[in-house]
Hints:
Largest sheet: 5 strands, mixed
Strand order of the largest sheet: 5-6-7-9-8
Radius of gyration: 27 Å
Strand content: 5-15%
Order of helices and strands: HHHHHHHEEHEEHHHHEEHEHEEHEEHHHH
Number of strands: 11
Shape: globular
Number of helices: 19
Mean pLDDT: 88
Structural class: alpha+beta
Amino acid sequence: MVSELAPLSLTQILRRRPQWVLAAILAMTSIGIVLQPGFGRLNYYFALSTALVVPLLVGFAVIQAVGQLGRAAASSPPLWALFRVSGALTAVYLTIPLLAAGLAAIWVRNCAPFRGVLFYLFETGLGTLVASVVALGVALLPIRWRSALFLAIWLASLLATTSDLYFEPRIFLYNHFVGFFSGAIYDEVIVITATFVWFRLVSLALVFVVASLVILAFDPTSGTLSRRAFRQRRAVGKLAWCGLAVVVCTAQLAGGYIGFSRGRRDVQRELSHHRTSEHFVFHVADALDAERWKQLVDDFEFRYDRLSRFFAVDLDRRVHVYIYAGAAQKRRLMGAARTFVAKPWLFEVHLNRVKFGDAIVTHELAHVFAAAFGSGPFRIAARYGVLVHMGLVECVAVAAEWDDGDYTPHQLVAAMRTLARRNELSRLPALASIMGTFGFWKQHAGTAYTIAGSFVRFLVERYG
């Protein structure tokens, strides 16, 4: 016997302790996000931050609500009531961060509110919808520890996605719960691309796949999902579900062609001009004549020799150098448009077209050489192997490139100190704060790079 209506209203559900505790956590987290510099307006960074929180909390809320409805009813509630409550909770939890952003808009001006709303819908909105329907399916399983299972699914999804950041050239990721992570810290212009739209269409298809499976496998007698109920459904419905599931799986497998999961082979296929030297393997987008190849190889080998003497190490493998045709191609293939990237643990650097003698080449190669002294899985300066000392990571590279510019960091720091004494420049940040685990991020990038690089160069010159 199935009850006609769920005995608890949405208001009654929200008043239960698990629900208001989850809502309070989200409210406090949202306030904390908008108080951070750069996150106080409705934009990509706000959307990404909330996408890490809202889907997870909504999943827990849906599981708790289904349990509350089941315990309060004399018989199992109808499936439509469960979908309704799930959808209502999704809407409520999505509104809480928007309220925080709305309050922040009182004192923080937003120059592109429409773009911010789109990012919130694509990042947090669709990610929360995916989490809501997955959580509903988990809540209806005849098992214990449903919340733990949902958490495991969420973590496994993130792990599967982020593992590619470690093993592949790209620094961006697409995840059905979280959405899009651009990866490039210093690329300020982030837009919703066609790839992101296609990916979110796959997310919507995934929502229909999971929701259809819940409908097909729901047993109204027990109020749970069962194989017996699924077997009793009409073949047409099951075939339609299988067809949609195949479409989603095919789209995931074709991610390299669509653009949301490009791998090393995809990058090397487009950067199709290759050359191997004594210490490097080059992958270049443009066709180069023999003279240009010689200039490129000689330039990199010269820098290798210079860095090898500076660090007093010789690398035990060749460095892979990826040189893209331009910012657009580089953004599409690996995520960073104008930002140059080194992955020391993979012995590879990713560059746009560089002029002969460009200092950035020395800087990025220095990161690879510094891997000889790094720790943890990323082979960089990090506490416990994961808490990155970004000041130390970057300042070593600045100290290594040293005289590739018009002025050395020593000279620039001396000039900044003189201007600060004359009150023509704001007070310089303390060296201890720049070299700390998180202090580097709180400073202006140019100032932090220069001061930290000067300090490390001083240590090298004084102590070797």
